[in-house]
Amino acid sequence: MENTKEIIHSIIECAVAEVLVLVAKDIRRLKFADIVRKTHNVVNDLGVKLIENIVRIIDEKYNAQRDKHNVILRHTKTRKMVSEMGELNLTRKLYFDKAAARYFFAVDEILNIEKYSRVEGELKTKLINDATLTSYGKASKLSYECVSRQTVHNIVKSVTPKKLEAQADGFKSINEIYIEADEDHIHLNTGKSAEVKLVYVHEGRHRVCRGRTVLQNVKYFVSAKKGNEIWDNVADYIYSQYNLKGTEVHLSGDGANWIKRGLDVIPRAQFHLDKFHVYKSVTDAVSGDRALRSKIINGIKFGDSKGVHSLYLQRWNALNEVRMRNRLFDSLQYIENNFDSIDLDEQRNCSAEGHVSHVLSARLSSRPMGWSLAGAERIAQLRAFYFNGGDFTSLYRGREENTEEEMQSYNNSVRETYMGDHTIPKGRIVGLEAVYDEVGNYLRFLLKK
Length: 449
Fold this sequence. Notes:
The chain has helices at 2-24, 32-65, 106-110, 121-133, 136-142, 149-157, 229-241, 257-260, 262-265, 275-286, 290-301, 305-317, 322-337, 352-364, 373-387, 403-419, 438-448, and strands spanning 71-82, 87-97, 102-105, 176-187, 193-202, 205-207, 213-215, 219-223, 248-253, 269-273.
């Protein structure tokens, strides 16, 4: 222990001596920026040397305590690893365990150092966080200079999607649940376009200073994939988070088919057409005629579908341009197809457009860039994870134990215990949303596999 203290004290003294060199200079030639820069470099170098020596000391301690008959020392290797402080040169001893018939680096296993990785876990966390908020290129420059844009891309790509899923934090009863949905349109690197869907669940709006409102306990879900996977994830979260007995579930959106599919997965929900799209459609149709716009909006508020149709017909007869008539027809069809779902009440506000801009567009489509579907999916998931309050440090914990395999083994044993030789088909059971006990939760878990 004394020898270890001496080594560490010696490293620190050398670092302090380097800083003190600045003080010895002519005061008139000193600049504060130079002091900050020099101190930053010295502290980073100090951190690198400390880590390298601590790893070496731990390795030597294991070497002294090992069972020399069963654990054979083979040779020593140096591993380079990039950290936020600089490049680490980790000297480790390779051992052979005769009983287990395997080679291993003891210090890697003791300190949970990730296999084959050139980038240290904390730096990976920072790079993922930066890449979530800005481009891969900018993220690589915000960190250590040896990290390339491609390295950042590879690190983001390696994140396990399972770790990014929104997790329920309790099981509670509330009066109303709100689900709002919209999509962002992105450009693919193939020259085509695609949609990234956004669905978020919250418990209502809370008014704060100056009329601003915030969503209560909001959770975001995203997907660039086709199909109902996003709604399956939303449903799993809702049934795990809430006791839906006596709860009103409201689904809001622009009326797109993929949004209305949510009613199939969450049949308890009532659909409400987004007010923003109602007003936008009517405004585009009347082309600046405020009096007509007011009449149509009032007709919609009072549920007078025939009166609204009549107002559109009057406007149709007054138009000669085909383009204007087509716009009017599209608006009328949009309003009539969703008339029963329109609720212009103040409580039915839907802010999906703003959330799409904030959560997705700011990274995916606000600047010219081409995505692969997989890349857009992963960045969208990371954005949702970020806005859900996710902890990026949880994405990299070094050499993690294979809990996935252990859990799968446990799940299989549970199936055998409870189900015997019977199998449960994958999919959804009609009426399962009404089952709230442990059996219902277990069945939903099995169907998710």
